[in-house]
Amino acid sequence: MIRHLVQGLHSGASADPVDAHCDGPCGIYDPASARIHAEAVRSMTRKILDMTPPDASDATAMARYLNTLSRYVAIKEEEAEHTKREILILWTDYFKPTHLQSHPTLHDTFWKAAKLCSTCKVEVSATHADELMAAIEQIHNLFWSTKGRSVPWTLAGG
Fold first, then answer.
1. Domain-by-domain residue ranges, the chain?
2. Residue closest to 94 by CA, chosen among 32, 29, 17, 147
3. How far lies 49's CA from each of 3, 9, 29, 127, 150, in Å?
4. Is there a contact between 41 and 120 (Cβ–Cβ < 8 Å)?
5. Cα angle vertex 145, ends 140, 147, to 5°?
6. Average pLDDT score, the chain
7. CA–CA separation, 2 vs 127, rounded Å?
8. Which of 3.30.1120.10, 1.20.1560.10, 3.20.20.70, 1.20.120.400 would CATH assign to domain 29-146?
9. DSSP state letter for 22
10. Model confidence over 25-69: pLDDT tens digits?
11. Entry pTM
């Protein structure tokens, strides 16, 4: 049945060629989602670094501390992975060879940002979390420049 439908579509239809820079010509790309995820990485990193372990003899306080710490770590790692996914989608699906001509550091910018996502997953470093935010800001500016627009860099979390 499905084969019959597909054959019918191929035999009776002629379509104009279409250009798309991704799997579907949606045209909806925005580095804002990467920024939001990176902000969460930075927020969780700061929260982890601000924690003070309780006296080890207080089992209830220690359990509460370890539970909160493990939640923050899990969120930080998940958000770093989401950040990486979002920038890889922009890098591989949105950007075209013409963008590389006008932005010769494009590949290096994205590669370093993706590596920072991995670093933020395995470390608890305020410096690296801030570097990730700076890399995402650079991607934000690069992206909007390809569209000929000046979109302000605005943080959701302040």
1. 29-146
2. 29
3. 59, 59, 33, 12, 35
4. yes
5. 105
6. 88
7. 55
8. 1.20.120.400
9. S
10. 566 899 999 999 999 999 999 999 999 999 999 999 999 999 999
11. 0.82
